[in-house]
Specification:
single chain, mainly alpha, 8 helices, 0% strand, transmembrane helix, DUF6766, transmembrane
């Protein structure tokens, strides 16, 4: 589904970009040129950045925060967590090693999401900057340096408009899972569970 949507983004983005070029009296560009353009990569990384931020923040916040009745929260009382300890022979090797390796393994999910966020944020910055250079040429104005563009409100507008929607999605999932159910979904409490039951 992701690849199908990404392919559709590339096709429609190419058409929209060429339409904009024609409106400015410029020659259209081919498929390969578009796929290596700042326009395509800016749009791609802009979305990936917000998704990885959402998941990284969500993973970290659920370590410390609780929401009574939410399927997305750990139980309010740790005694309610009746998970059996894993036998030593079945534990991951990284966990058994201890020390720094154990710490990295124990936090590897949030570390991975945050690294993916910083990678995507950097890709978004470079892609948007390259796009801004093309826009500047079309409008016959000087292009900004990368450092100057990193402080440009338009770049941060692109980021914040995505970030706020991702945080809204997390909030919706946490709150709606208190009252609503989806049979057989791991994101939902059992359908017969009371609203104040916390955790799935």
């Amino acid at each position: 589904m992701m690849l199908a949507a990404w392919s559709a983004q590339a096709v429609t983005g190419h058409a929209a970009h060429n339409q904009e070029l024609l409106e400015h009296g410029k020659a259209t560009i081919g498929w390969h040129a578009y796929l290596t353009s700042g326009d395509f990569w800016s749009a791609t990384f802009e979305n990936w950045e917000s998704e990885f931020l959402q998941m990284g923040v969500y993973v970290l916040l659920t370590v410390w925060l609780r929401q009574k009745g939410s399927a997305e929260s750990r139980p309010m009382d740790e005694a309610e967590d009746d998970t059996e300890p894993t036998p030593v022979e079945r534990q991951p090797r990284a966990w058994r090693r201890g020390g720094v390796v154990r710490w990295l393994y124990a936090n590897s999910l949030s570390i991975a999401f945050l690294l993916l966020f910083f990678f995507s944020f950097t890709g978004h910055l470079f892609g948007s900057w390259r796009k801004s250079i093309g826009d500047a040429a079309m409008h016959h104005v000087p292009a900004e340096s990368l450092g100057s563009y990193a402080l440009d409100p338009s770049f941060w507008f692109e980021s914040f408009q995505n970030w706020q929607s991702e945080f809204l999605a997390v909030l919706s999932l946490v709150v709606l899972s208190i009252f609503l159910r989806q049979k057989d979904s791991p994101q939902s409490k059992p359908v017969d569970a009371p609203n104040d039951k916390t955790g799935s």
